[in-house]
Amino acid sequence: MTLFSLARKNIKGNFNNYFVYFVTLVFSMVIYYTFTSLQYSEKIQESIELSDTMSFMFGVSSIILILFVAIFILYSNSFFTRKRKKEVGLYAILGLRKKTIAKMLFYENLIMGIIAIVIGIILGTLLSKLFAMILIKLMGSIAEVDVGISILAITQTVIVFMVIILFTSVQGYRLIYRFTLIELFYDEKKGEQIPKVSLISAVIGVILLVVSYWLILKPFPDEFTTEYLIKNYGIAFVALVIGTHLFFRSVTVYLLRLSQKNKSRYYRGTRIIETSRLLFRIRGNARTFTVIALLSAATICFLGATYSGYYSNEKRAKEVVPFSYSHLSKGPEFDSQVESIIKADHRHPIKAKLDIPVIQVKGILSFQLDYDINPVKLISESTFNKVANALNKDETVSLSGNQAAVIQPRFTEYTKSVFKGENITIQLPQGSSELPFVHMVESNVLPFDYPDFFLVVSNEMFAKIAKKEAPLTYKVYEVENEVTAQATSRKVNKLVGNDFQVSSSFYTEYKQGKEGNAITLFIFGFLGLVFLAASGSIIYFKQLTEANEAKGQYEILRKIGVNKKDIRKSIKRQSLFVFGLPLTVGILHSCVTLYFTSNFISNLIGINLIFPILMAIVFFVIIYAVYYVLTVNTYNRIVNK
Amino acid sequence: MNIVVEAKQIKKVYGAKGNVFSALEDIDLTVMEGEFVGIMGPSGSGKSTLLNILATIDEPTAGDIVVDGINLTKMNEEQLSAFRRDKLGFLFQDYNLLDTLTVKENIILPLALAKLNVEELERRADEVADKFGIRDILNKYPYQISGGQKQRTAASRAIISKPNIILADEPTGALDSKSATDLLESLKDLNEQDKATILMVTHDAYAASYCNRVLFIKDGKIFTELVKGKRSRKEFFNKVLDVLSALGGGANDVI
Ligand SMILES: Nc1ncnc2c1ncn2[C@@H]1O[C@H](COP(=O)(O)OP(=O)(O)OP(=O)(O)O)[C@@H](O)[C@H]1O
Ligand SMILES: [Mg+2]
């Protein structure tokens, strides 16, 4: 028998064990391939507004993905190695030369890796088209896009994964040289010591968790500074991470110990076996559980948040760019050129056309506000009301004399009470005048441009100031069905140039937002999937390793008279705990964090996050459930034949 | 008196085509209620195999076994499990303790599985722990105790549920003579007071002298049988030694 065929035989024999790992590996290759092929796909990029961003985002996320996958592969491999130490020792005792064994392990790993790559590339080319279609659908592009086969993406995928696989193969090669024979044989018992209950660390764990939840759920202060953000949520994050680890390490140990105290429950049926098994294993699982819980919390969070961003994009875009088209008037000739472009688009007829005179002045607030307000932009009461009318909003103002209303600066959280009873002194060439704030309104007029500090003043006041300080005139148009006005928007943008920090046409802002959100949603969705698959596979494999070690123990149980049904039940309960615990903690964490983000987001745009969050959670639970069933079946097959 | 165990024509063949090995050949065995039967024979003669078959842990290749009037070969898996749990106490040659349970938890496991109430369970645990002198190690784990202590733990687990039939595979193998005597005495108590039927595999003629009857097995067949009858233990002990030397091997197991 040649070395090669021995290696091949080994793979076949172990295939059942490797299967889940293998599938996960292939899956992550498919996703990696998809990401890189999207990164390089010029056809898609031509058809969208956000082409640079897209290529960049896929580039970055494929790096994140590969880091994650690399960790996953190395981690899984250390498992395989441990599991096979004995086998390797046996070969050595049977008289195979070290070098021969090393080569065999090397080939084994290499063969498996190459098979995975081949399958991964084939599936990748097939599935990446489907995935790209999902992305295009999400982005709302109409263009028929054929992604095609990307040689660049194939090469990159092959090279990257080949490097990782070669690395693990070399590790396999070195296995036999790293250990003495005796070490190869006696390894299993490590970590199988009963954990001590440390009440202190359990208490600290609970306290940290409570503190971090409290910090996260605390309502926003009136003044919302970056410093506060970093301090409050930085501490919350650290407390959450440490607290979670202590939770798995000590609190669960403590709780399990506590459950042992209730003798009439504990000494009944197979519970005694499950509890003690879990207790023995919990230390070894604590770190994995922590990582899984935190990562699933993060994934659910990101998914929920991006989904809601995607969901609320139109509303947000309308806020950032209120009119279909807006531009600064640059003389009648220029203005009519713009107008004729817009008028030429018969499919998007003009609903409203307004002139918006704006006076920029210097102002000093009567109080401290951490917002750079200058230059203050003044518009008149009638302009504001006309805008509201054109955009179908019911928010109107009526002012007299010196009274002023502030329009809430976009992307801030200032409330009415911040401005109540205060005033602003505006400086004009002939002296300054003091304007008291009487209102705060939330309808915006022009596309966002920092600083975004608009004041509405009475018509008389506006006229008076206008005499000294000539207003700039902006022309704005509102058209029918603006969400599809791609061609005209592109033309207008080109002609108008950068009057604002954001685009001057609604469509561009809307579409870019939609595409950006779609890409993030897509990326997080698939990263989440890969993560889920990997974490499920890790738990699966851990359980399997445990099953192999516990074979003898279950045999004893059968000898004492526990029937197969009860053993299966006992395996089910243990696996439920092992899958359920990190998932539950992860979901709890993400609910808390999402409660915070939803506060944050719905303050801005007022939408409901429940549905997307629920979707993300259900999704997680379903995938874990699949792994749970797989685990129970395999475990049962191993110990309960 | 009732027949408790009746085995007819038991065969056990290991291995598959071409490479078969016959561990037991046509064994007939009848054990009456309340008997204390010893099984002796050289290493590899099939003693453990026989015991395992009687304990329903292993299946005979051919033959019928009736225990307490129930034909074991006709029972399904669930019934067999219940039978093992409720009727049998098994003391394994290699202890078979659960690593993740403390000594106490190991001992009470059969009772927990039978869902006995806690008070009764605790009471019996105390009782057997005292009997075998393992009170001090009740909260230790198997990896923390010695071979002899493991054996006593296994013995405690085997008898805690007061089984009708106790099957013991070299129960004194890892014990010093004092603990061995203690264990044998308590088996005798169970036999005499609780009317438990005991089958014990042993290499030790001294242990065998506690039995009413000793079966000798060689190469998977019953070689001969020795009944204590009215003999004193000392006399019986010498008789056993005689047979052992005739059997070849085994005699040098005597300390
Ligand atoms: N699972 C098995 N497969 C093949 N042969 C086996 C198996 N179990 C036992 N044997 C063989 O059957 C024979 C009887 O074994 P058994 O364990 O019953 O011996 P024993 O009398 O208990 O010996 P000892 O006194 O050493 O415990 C031995 O030759 C053994 O090699
Ligand atoms: Mg034996």
UniProtKB/TrEMBL annotation, chain A:
Q: Does the keyword Ubl conjugation apply?
A: no
Q: Does the record's keyword annotation contain tRNA processing?
A: no
Indicate the principal place this protein occupies in or around the cell. Answer: membrane
Q: Which Pfam families match?
A: FtsX (PF02687)
Q: Which ranges carry the ABC3 transporter permease C-terminal domain?
A: 60-178, 526-638
Q: Which InterPro entries match?
A: ABC-4_Integral_Memb_Prot, ABC3_permease_C, ABC_permease_BceB-typ
Residues spanning the membrane: 18-35, 55-75, 105-127, 147-176, 197-216, 236-256, 289-310, 518-541, 576-597, 609-630
| Protein origin, superkingdom | Bacteria
**Keyword tags:** Cell membrane, Membrane, Transmembrane, Transmembrane helix, Transport
Q: Which family does it belong to?
A: Belongs to the ABC-4 integral membrane protein family.
> What protein name is recorded for this chain?
ABC transporter permease
Q: In which organism is this protein found? A: Oceanobacillus profundus
UniProtKB/TrEMBL annotation, chain B:
Originating species: Oceanobacillus profundus
Domain called ABC transporter: residue spans: 5-244
Question: Can you name one GO molecular function term for this protein?
Answer: ATP hydrolysis activity
InterPro entries noted in UniProt: AAA+_ATPase (IPR003593), ABC_transporter-like_ATP-bd (IPR003439), MacB-like_ATP-bd (IPR017911), P-loop_NTPase (IPR027417)
Keyword ATP-binding (UniProt): yes
Q: This chain belongs to which protein, by name?
A: ABC transporter ATP-binding protein
Q: Does the keyword Repeat apply?
A: no
Keywords attached to this Swiss-Prot or TrEMBL record, sorted alphabetically, are: ATP-binding, Nucleotide-binding, Transport
Similarity section: Belongs to the ABC transporter superfamily.
Which GO cellular component terms, listed alphabetically, does the Swiss-Prot or TrEMBL entry include? membrane protein complex
